[in-house]
Amino acid sequence: MNKIQGYRRYVPGTQPPHLHPAYVSSIKRAPLQPLVVLPHTLSEITGPVFGPEIADVKACDLTRQHSGEPLGERIIVSGRVLDENSRPVPYTLVEIWQANAAGRYLHGIDQHNAPLDPNFTGCGHAVTDSEGRYRFVTIRPGEYPWGNHHNAWRPAHIHFSVFGPAFATRLVTQMYFQGDPLIPFDPIFNCTDDEAARNRLISQFDWETTIPSQALGHRFDIVLSGRESTPMETHAHGEKS
Amino acid sequence: MSLQATTWQTVGPFFSIGFSWLYRDNLAGPGVSGERVEIVGRILDGDGKPVPDGIVEIWQANSQGKYAHPEDPQKKQDEPGFTGYGRVPTDDSGRFRFTTIKPGRVPGPDGKLQAPHLAVSVFTRGLLRRLITRIYFPDEPSNAEDFALNLAEAGRRGTLIARKIDGQAGALEWNVILQGPGETVFFDV
């Protein structure tokens, strides 16, 4: 029998609850029954594999997907995908989507009366390199109003989706911008109890990735669940590994 | 050095912008071996209303019970062209639909085989993080001894098992009830 080396469980408080009434949409959609804790099996420690061929150059430069350049401030968003053991997560798929510079999504149900930009779709994807690095060129998304409560505005953000090596390591999150005055008022940003965990969603301005005369750099590192230090069956039998 | 996993955030209502390039509603192209099944269902909220802004991701083994992944150590046959991954959005009536093959049995704890199942992630606007569940198959004797099914309360276990649709060979129905009566069993993975 092969031993299964599972992934670590989240540290309590560092992930959002399902029910967070300040985010009104969670009220009727959050499950009310307790989750059933599932020990990791081969089904959870494996996951979809996407090769480097799935990425193309256009997909990681959101400013070059149309005939003209999109409006707004060009930025570089880059970082590393790591696991909790500080190991890079190489060759994994990272997807992003976002509003345009005016705070409008290219989506049929976005009713915000800000203009669409014919030169901006707002989606991209990349595969991390051997050191877990990814890099996107895009424009800084605008803030926008939403219907959660009176005078509700989302801070500027970029949605991120990351797979990692296993079903258990899947992550979808949002990246924010340093100094955004809307962050303290946003019920989605604030859904996680742990302040340090929340603040890690805020990207850092970065000289190193800034391109002179071209674009400011913002750095956003992503951490996926890491491996348990010992295989689970060893745990179960109380042996030393 | 030890880091902490990044906190989840909702996919929000506009995820199709980022996700649609990888929609895959047919996991088993021509030539992939196995018993073909079409699975249809709806995502419903706590008021029984359809969730039109939801998405389902599927992860599964091939018909031999082998995952297309470097960490599957089993000496079973790989299936060229079968990745085991699917991604389907819901429509305006909360409905999703995909075609695949029934997977073989894969190892579980204590050296026992698990019953055939699909691992499923559910994302919707309003969910701050994904919900994780499984789809099992009807008329499958190994369900009775499946460890994950048996972790769920007996009265709720049925939410994990797809139902046959009368008169349609190979068609199965499996719904996701996010909340309330008939709430689907969700796992902490």
Basic shape of chain A: globular
Tally the helices of chain A: what do you get? 4
- What is the straight-line distance between the termini of chain B? 24 Å
User: Given the helix and strand composition of chain B, which structural class is it?
Assistant: mainly beta
CATH superfamily grouping of chain A: Aromatic compound dioxygenase
- Considering DSSP H and I runs of 4 or more, what fraction of the residues of chain B is helical? under 10%
What string gives the helices and strands of chain A in order?
A: EHHEEEEEEEEHEEEH
**What proportion of the residues of chain A form beta strands (DSSP E)?**
25-35%
CATH level 4 superfamily of chain B? Aromatic compound dioxygenase
Low-confidence stretches of chain A: 233-241
Treating each run of at least 4 consecutive H or I residues as one helix, how many helices of chain B?
Answer: 2
Unreliable stretches covering 5 or more consecutive residues of chain B: none
Q: What letter string, H or E per element, gives the SSE order of chain B?
A: HEEEEEEHEEEE
Structure commentary:
The complex is a heterodimer of chains A (241) and B (189). Chain A has helices spanning 42-45, 57-60, 195-199, 232-236; strands spanning 36-37, 74-83, 93-98, 123-127, 133-139, 144-146, 152-154, 157-162, 171-177, 202-211, 215-219, 222-224. Chain A is mainly beta. In chain A, strands 2, 3, 4, 5, 8, 9, 10, 11 and 12 form a nine-stranded mixed β-sheet that branches. In chain A, strands 6-7 form a two-stranded antiparallel sheet. Chain A is globular and about 55 Å long. Chain A starts with 35 loop residues before the first strand and ends in a 5-residue tail after the last helix. The model of chain A is unreliable at 233-241 (pLDDT under 50). Chain B has 189 residues and is mostly beta strands. Chain B has one domain (16-177): Aromatic compound dioxygenase (Protocatechuate 3,4-Dioxygenase, subunit A). Chain B is 5% helix and 26% strand. Chain B contains two helices and ten strands. In chain B, strands 1, 4, 7, 8 and 9 form a five-stranded mixed β-sheet that branches. The chains are: A mainly beta (241), B mainly beta (189). At the A-B interface, β1, α1, β3, β4 and β9 of A face α1, β5 and β10 of B. β1 of chain A pairs parallel with β10 (187-188) of chain B, so a sheet runs across the interface.
